[in-house]
Design brief:
The chain has 411 residues and is an alpha+beta fold. Helices cover 19% and strands 23% of the residues. The protein has helices at residues 5-16, 27-58, 119-125, 252-258, 304-309, 347-351, 361-369; strands spanning 84-86, 93-97, 99-102, 108-116, 128-129, 143-144, 146-148, 151-153, 158-159, 165-167, 179-181, 185-186, 193-195, 201-209, 212-213, 217-221, 226-230, 234-236, 243-244, 248-249, 261-262, 284-286, 317-319, 337-340, 343-345, 373-375, 397-399, 402-404.
Amino acid sequence: MKKHPLLVAGLLAGTIIAGISSFGVSEPAQAAQRRAMAAHQGAMGEARALLQNVARESGRPVYTPANGVRFKASDNVFVKSALAIDFTYRKANVTLPLFRGLSPKGQPVYYIITDASDFKVARVMGLNYAPKMSKAAGTPGAMNVTINNGIMAFPGDVDFSPEYHVMPGNAPTFFPPKSFRPGAVGDAEWSSMAVLPSGLVLNVQMVQNATGPHDRLVGIDVRRRTATLSLLDGFQAGKQYYYHLVTDVSADLPAVLEKGVFTPRLAGVPKAGKSLPRDASARLGFSPVLNGKTDINSRDDQGFSTSLANGGIDPINIFPLAPQNNNRSASNNYSPLWDLHVNMWTPAAIRAGRVTRIRSQTQLNRLIRAGHVTSAEINPPGPGNPYIGGLRPTGPIVNCPVIAQPNLPPR
């Protein structure tokens, strides 16, 4: 029987579009979209479960962007779920919601959350949006967790029992320390890059368990589910008060200098010296000073030397950018996993009296080009990172979630 021309055309069209949706998307692409949608829905469900549980246990309403604390616009708070912030110079601190989780042995542990790899999750939970963190998933540096009724169960744990210790080295740099010991150490399974079943990556930090508290914990109220932690100062784009937490660090010496948990597993997060959005890296370069001025009355004090010489005060590091919580595009380059690129003033610059406080990445780049600042001697050989003025990466990660950058007079 002769087929009608329209039927033939329809059969041909059906063959042609068998793998094409009405929007021109191939079958594999449709499958990928379905998986992404399912993962996003799963992530939103996990986020809501966490919020509902902390609300249940604390007695506070479930956090929403509408009922969060109303900070002043001039406070420039990035982490919207923060409950209180004290900007007193050298005594700054932030109070955050405290979540209850379970240790590998099923014991209660308490932790905070500061960043999320998913834009909507970050908005719903009042966290920083850190899209680069998604590149930590599936790497040796991440930690896969489970969640049940809003309770996160960790395969790794932190030992807070070691006594923090540092003995400064000899003047004038006081670096390296004569002896040091981190005040807390994560086990082989612990990482602050927590990957939930949906694939969502959250930046979590245990702040108290049966072994004790985090070294930067100022106060904790387990009943009301709040944790107050000290904030560190810094410079970004010429502005001071780039206030951030130090949660954990992938190497022991910087963990001591920054008073974070020494987390060896974090070193497995890719990739040192790679900071661009297109790089397969969850890290973002930044640059502490090794040998800045140590006189805290000079208003030029800065660096590891300053911290060691003055009882562990803020080293006032230099950061290249601030969180971009409203930017959901591929250009958003923020990550709390700061890739260490330590710089140092050259002997010639020191003799010439050029040492000053470095206030921006732009200023640092100028000093590097002029030959006054270079890669620190502690940085291993290898290629420089053009994102950080060509400095060589030091290697370790310092997990520094950024909380706020208030508009205050410089100190």
